[in-house]
TrEMBL record:
Residues 156-301 form the PurM-like C-terminal domain. The gene is hypE. This is Hydrogenase expression/formation protein HypE. Belongs to the HypE family. SUPFAM superfamilies: PurM C-terminal domain-like, PurM N-terminal domain-like. GO terms for biological process: protein maturation. It holds the Pfam family AIRS_C. Residues 31-143 form the PurM-like N-terminal domain. InterPro entries: HypE, PurM-like_C_dom, PurM-like_C_sf, PurM-like_N, PurM-like_N_sf. The lineage of its organism: Bacteria, Bacillati, Actinomycetota, Actinomycetes, Kitasatosporales.
Amino acid sequence: MGHGGGGTLSAELVEQVFAPAFGGAALAERGDAATLRLGGVRLAFSTDSFVVRPLFFPGGSIGDLAVNGTVNDLAMSGARAAYLSCGFILEEGVEIETVSRVAEALGAAARTAGVEVATGDTKVVESGHGDGLFVNTSGIGLIPAGVDLRPARVVPGDVVIVSGPVGAHGVAVMSVREGLEFGVEIVSDCAALGGLVAAMLAVTPDLHVLRDPTRGGLAASLNEIATGSGTGVVITEREVPVPPAVASACAVLGLDPFYVANEGKLVAFVPREHADAVLEAMRAHPLGAQAAIIGEAVAEHPGMVVARTGLGGTRVVDMPLGEQLPRIC
């Protein structure tokens, strides 16, 4: 299970098994989406599979995730998603009503995101082999001229901005799965981020890198960027927005909210001269109303993420080994 968690084990699986088998320059970038040139235009292309359990949770469903997860991967390349494919793997015995609810949620999410489901596939597996249903979506979108988002562009002095409070999605799914109650309902942040990214790029196309901190949470995304850029990252713990209910739930469960998955947040590395204007544009958008500056890229300790604690010390924020909460997307 740890190999599917978006942490060190996932990275080793890609590096040791998939990358040598597949090869190719596009895959070598290791982005949320591949950046490709085709017929004189730049495309972003991404695929993702969704195995969340349960299928429905506060704030969304596997259908919402299937759209928003792929749309957001494209958005992290600066692309506005245009078309999706959709593959359903159904378990023998799953009720048609359940399939219909998921399909309706997926269609509604696609319309909200402004993307068209253009093609698809259906397969059925024997009872006991599918856990209800799984969904795969792939997407393509155009990258505007002048946009170049990748870790290699990060330099010391870049400002780190997160688009809002972290940790809600993973805790929302876990609370339903395990029947936990925390005195207040915790709702997933599942949302399509294309509009927010467009608002940021309207300020300046010179953003350096974007990531949506899904599996492995904020910690995994920051470590991936630090490793890919060869810079260090310093964040201030108290500046990272964490909803009180999520913080309380994580304390009860023994989790660190920095490692809990999100499905409607992004982290951006922005040149310092543009940071205030980008932050203002983010806060003017509904999905970035609580955006905050949480740190910066530094020349010291390249490839490492550290956090300044409330007690005045520092701690290393490691790449997660596997996943604290499996099957959350």
